[in-house]
Amino acid sequence: MMTHLIIFPVLLPLAAGIILLLLRQRNQLLERGLSIISIVTQIFLAFQILSAVSHGDILVYALGDWSAPYGIILVADRLAAWMLLITALLSLFAMFYAIPITEQAGRHFHVLFQLQLFGLNGAFLTGDLFNLFVFFEILLIASYSLLLHGGGRLRTKAGLHFVVINLVGSTLFLFAVGILYGTLGTLNMADLAIKLAHLPAEDVALVQVAGLLLFSVFALKAALVPLHLWLPSAYAHTSAPIAALFAIMTKVGAYSILRIYTLIFGAEAGLSAHLIEGWLLPLALITLLVGMLGVVASTHLRQQIAFLVVASVGTLLTAFGLNTQASIAAGLFYLPHSTFATAAFFLLANSIAIRRAEWEDRLDVGPVIPHARLLGGLFFVAAMLLAGLPPLSGFIGKFMILHASLAHSALPWVMSVVLITSLLSLIALARTGSLLFYRAQPPNPLSNTASITTIYQELLPIISLLSLCMILVIWGGTITQFLHFTAEQLLQPSRYIEAVLLTGRN
Amino acid sequence: MEALISLIIGVLTACGVYLSLRGRTFPVVLGLTLLSYAANLFLLVMGRLVIGTPPIIVDGTNGYTDPLPQALVLTAIVISFAMTAFVIVLALKTYKELGNDHVDGIHKP
């Protein structure tokens, strides 16, 4: 059982997806039950893997027992386990929110949801570059359908842009993979790292082209400026639980950047070492600034949150761009915080929007909504989380990033951009909050909002996601320590390479 | 032969980029298809152009054809095929919902 442990997070959602497809919505209760059981089991598996790798072991699973570098392998290290856990927890609460509302909007919701998880888990676990491409495509095609789920004019338009730009991204990924295979003769990530260190000087330029092509693909997925333009409309127009689940999608890009550029193009890559060092930090800071200006300029709440996602990617990649152990640990702490907080915010925005009748999520003076105190309180907590106010996890994450930048030469840039954007987000969210809750007019007796009375079902996932952020603070010490070890492991790729290439040899 | 193949890949990519920057969905879909053809051909060529040698090394042969890019390109073809099918359906759906085939949904005469 233990040896096969790390294939289960990939197989389980695939199997659940296929079974759900065969059920064809005959039994709603069974469908929901199966979907939730699958996700809960994934959380359990993620915890199992996390405890198995927490002492620094790297688990390697050779598919079909073909040993690396010839076969495809799955690798679980601390980073992969951490990402698996975040994905599984996020998807559980997104699913809880989706069950009473979104599920009915179209067929195959549960199937697509499981296949999305299949792609995500696979992308986090794979140790092979082409396999990463395949899992990217799986999660993308599931995400295309989920994004369009329910239909509608604006959603379809945003969906078309999302699909087209991602297809171009996939083409670039294939070109990059082709160049790497053509020059280095392998696609196993660990093997690529070794081959790259001994690359003859005349091929270096070619491999660097491939490395930067890959970077542009991952930057596209992560919504790094100037490749962020697809994100705000796509996230703002899709349904709330899907937008919440997609909070992890940009993090897949960030994860891939972290993985590829510490493992393959890391410090030991010979002439190609630190390939994106000069690009990542400036682009991340610009992303943060552009995202936050978008937050200030937004006219709709969901659009505002989508820009908050862009800004959070900026903060996250700023941390990764500083490229020290402390900053990577800080980024990995910020990652679940921003994922859970933006997801909760998307869900909350939907709960607010459906109660404002024709005002929906427009940032304008509207009617007083039912349960205004409860929703307002949650809005306050979510806004504090995202603006990074103490004592919540956003503050700790940003503080760790700023603390890590103290010794870096880009300190003035990082410090000023992060602090100014925090102020901008505070202003924008305070304005939003006062528009939505304080300056609201008494409700128009003609408008029909009374039909929505049950709220507690919607509140459970929102409160749970916000409390996950609290857990990040309460167990902050343990988590931070774990993340420091994770960053340490990432910055010593030789252990990963050894673990991968020695599997099946003894 | 190398020059010919690279020329073909270059022309396919250039046409693909040009078409995918057009304003209507049909040229865009066509452009994406050409781009994926270029990528697939590129991937295939990365195993080097070799004629008349076996993919599996046996006694008495010198040289071999790298079979891996062919396997990779099969996967890539299947994926791009599925994606093209999806994007065609999506383009039709946009046409139906937005009333015209412009990618931004705004008809410019």
TrEMBL record, chain B:
Source organism phylogeny: Bacteria, Pseudomonadati, Pseudomonadota, Betaproteobacteria, Nitrosomonadales
Keywords: Cell membrane, Membrane, Transmembrane, Transmembrane helix
Localisation: Cell membrane
PANTHER family per UniProt: ANTIPORTER SUBUNIT MNHC2-RELATED
Cleaved signal peptide residues: none
Top-rank taxon, per record: Bacteria
Topology versus the membrane: Multi-pass membrane protein
Primary location recorded for the protein, binned into one broad class: membrane
NCBIfam families for the chain: PRK08600.1, PRK09094.1
GO cellular component: plasma membrane
Record-given protein name: Multisubunit potassium/proton antiporter, PhaC subunit
Similarity section: Belongs to the CPA3 antiporters (TC 2.A.63) subunit C family.
InterPro entries xrefs: CPA3_antiporter_subunitC, NUOK/Mnh_C1-like
TM ranges: 6-21, 28-51, 71-92
